[in-house]
Amino acid sequence: MTKHRSLSRTLNFLRFKRKSWFFLKFGFLVFALIVFCEYIIYYLVIFQCHWPEVKTIASESKQQTPEPVLKVMFLADTHLLGEINGHWLDKLRREWQMERAFQTALWFLQPEIAFILGDVFDEGKWSSPEAWAADVERFRRVFQHPPHTQLIVVAGNHDIGFHYEMNTYKLQRFKKVFDFGELFSIKGINFVMVNSVAMEGDGCTICSSMEAQLIKLSHLLNCSRQEKYHSSPKCSGIQQLSASAPILLQHYPLYRRSDADCTGEDSAPPEKKNLLFEERYDVLSKEASQKLLWWFQPRLILSGHTHSACEVLHDGKIPEISVPSFSWRNRNNPSFIMGSITSVDYSLSKCFLPLEHTVLTIYCIAGILVALLMLTHCQPV
185-188 — which CB contacts under 8 Å span 24+ positions? Predict the structure, then answer.
């Protein structure tokens, strides 16, 4: 009898030990799966991205010192969800994706500047002061950055409202957080940030003020760029900036009929490519687009808003890049643009983020395997 009890205790102990070892391994595999899908995959994907090469011209006045190269990230349409439309799980999933992507890119690529081309928030156009403060706090957590990287944000229609929703209060609270300005110059490179929502052309107070500021800025840049203006009385006493042609940054794209000519795996889906764009809603009006081109004669334009990629050539010589959305909520294959820029040249490349379908597929396959393992283990011997 004693021998039988001893044998029974030994068998029970072995069963317990085997179960414990199984659940320990099971827990470790689940933990490893989560770490891979929520951390490691971002490193594996973003490590494939590298800064594009750009030609540098030595300046005689600087004893053949090459032109300094500025490393810039451009992203758009993050659409941080608000308290009205944002389900907590949707918020958690998409914000975590953007946070991990952005922080991994900052750590690996070490950009000097990151521009977000509008629609940072999804509900800024109607959020209450309390909701706005909460959204800003979440933005600062998701897009926190080290001191050596500057983060500059351009206003979008979801941040301050469409033209019919925009007012001074919304614009000022946006400027208070993001220090929104029209000109940013660094390393001899001029970036012009346009509040494209205010380019309505109907003479509204905000629109008129914006256009007046842009005209003044274009005069300043033109006086700095062209030799013939240096001796002109119109340019006397004007602050001299770099003679570099500006890079235009805005939320709305310049006018184009549709995305029919856009190509690439992150361009608009086939069923949307031939849909005609509405002026002042999907794109700027023809008149506003021509004004910006005439005022600034930019060497490059970057925009957002459509959530899809596109490359357009304006007036046969001025390229515009529409930057796709950075969020899984708007597309399965988000990305951002990497730019190596000097005062006379630039080179761009695109860095894709992990596909949402890839991550979900990994979780589904792992879930099926785990279920099979559990069934196999729980079967009586």
Answer: 185/241, 185/242, 186/70, 186/112, 186/113, 187/68, 187/69, 187/70, 187/342, 187/343, 188/67, 188/68, 188/242, 188/244, 188/342, 188/343
